[in-house]
Specification:
Muramoyl-pentapeptide Carboxypeptidase, domain 1; TIM Barrel; 2 domains; 5-stranded antiparallel beta sheet; globular; 8-stranded parallel beta barrel; about 20% strand; about 400 residues; alpha/beta
Length: about 400
């Protein structure tokens, strides 16, 4: 009853001693989430205790006061539908994973995935968005229960193409085409939403980017779909990009936290070590609630040639293991970063290979589950140690 009559506003605050329909709305939502609260319209000690339990469970400040963050959480679609607390997603770059799905070892993987990010649209050099949906993704029956989300990105050849993004933002005709593509994708009944992975917004383009993202949010609401945005920490001192307003990150239903791709260029190391996670996630959570975050876990290795000119290339788990065998390299364990590595030398110089396996993923997964994040994203699917699926699940 209370849910149908009253809705919380952006500044609604309820606390001990309050009475009326707002309290009934709050109590009904708490009851639907299996909290032991009496629906009597009185914000008593039992209601306060249930709010404290909710805040503790989802990583909010525990004070027993139902403020904007509590009401935002209680209206979240996944939380209302009692979705798994820590979802497992995959990310596909290109079409290679569809062949992997046909392998017998991946039969159970499909059952463990909540959703899949499809990196199939990119912003080209002239600002035009190019790409198309993989036909196998939208027509494969085994994927029918997985939420498919296409990603529009300006990531190209190991770097984010900032000039291409600026070209898009400064031309109205390209923005209109972007909006039309967004509308078309969101209208597709097979797709569960849309994601923006647009990095490197320059000075003078912050408002245009905000307008672009707000337009996507509006269309997502029209079609009842989800909106996602990828957050790459700006640098060692700042989390959110300087030219983008912090309130912009309130627009998406979920924010996808990803390590900077450029970070691996500056300092040879693992793509996302345990130390990076422990440092960056708390910084991000000062701006965004943990329950709205999905954390990207890259599972392919990286091979570094160390010298005057640092070179690197990415390896799948199988490739990393095969290379270690060919080079007769002893595989060791970095107890600080919680990741496997080995060294070898050839005519190009000394090389160190870092790679994630079941053991390294276990460390990250166990820690992330304690941080109240809403999910993880395994990327790129098809490059991982297949034993990790023993560690993850719905």
């Amino acid at each position: 009853m209370g849910q149908e009559i009253w809705r919380p506003g952006k500044r609604t605050v309820l606390r001990l001693g309050d009475k009326g329909l707002p309290v009934i709305w709050l109590q009904e939502r708490l009851k639907s989430l299996a909290y032991d609260v009496e629906i009597d319209g009185v914000y008593g000690y039992l209601t306060e205790d249930c709010v404290c339990s909710l805040q503790r469970e989802y990583g909010l400040r525990v004070d027993g006061i139902a403020g904007p963050q509590v009401f935002e959480l209680l209206q979240d679609k996944d939380i209302q539908e009692k979705a798994p607390r820590c979802q497992v997603w995959g990310a596909v770059h290109g079409g290679g994973f569809w062949q992997q799905l046909e392998r017998k070892s991946y039969e159970d993987v499909r059952q463990k995935l909540t959703g899949m990010l499809l990196y199939c649209f990119r912003v080209g050099e002239n600002g035009e968005v190019v790409g198309e949906l993989p036909k196998a993704a939208v027509s494969d029956p085994p994927l029918a229960g997985i939420r498919l989300v296409p990603v529009i990105s300006n990531f190209n050849q190991d770097l984010y193409d900032e000039p291409a993004l600026e070209e898009l933002l400064k031309r109205r005709d390209l923005v209109r085409r972007f909006q039309e593509l967004t509308r078309k994708l969101l209208a597709n009944p097979r797709l569960g939403g849309i994601a923006l992975d647009l990095q490197g917004v320059g000075m003078g383009y912050g408002r245009r980017f905000a307008a672009l993202a707000a337009g996507v949010r509006k269309l997502a609401d029209v079609y009842g779909k989800w909106m996602y945005m990828v957050l790459v920490p700006a640098n060692d001192r700042r989390v959110l990009p300087r030219v983008i307003e912090s309130r912009l990150w309130r627009l998406p239903d979920r924010v996808i936290l990803q390590a900077s791709w450029e970070q691996v260029v500056r300092e040879p190391g693992p793509r996302m070590g345990y130390q990076w996670l422990k440092k960056e996630l708390p910084c991000v959570c000062r701006h965004l609630p943990a329950w709205k975050l999905m954390v990207v876990l890259p599972v392919n290795g990286i091979a570094w040639y160390v010298g005057e000119k640092q070179e690197y290339n990415y390896l799948s788990y199988d490739e990393a293991r095969k290379l270690a065998y060919l080079k007769q390299a002893a595989i060791r364990w970095d107890s600080l970063e919680k990741v496997s590595y080995y060294d070898f030398a050839d005519k190009k110089g000394r090389c160190r290979v870092w790679f994630d396996n079941k053991d390294s993923l276990r460390w990250k997964l166990n820690w992330l589950k304690e941080q109240h994040v809403t999910g993880i994203v395994i990327t790129p699917l098809g490059c991982e140690d297949t034993r990790i699926w023993e560690e993850v699940g719905r």
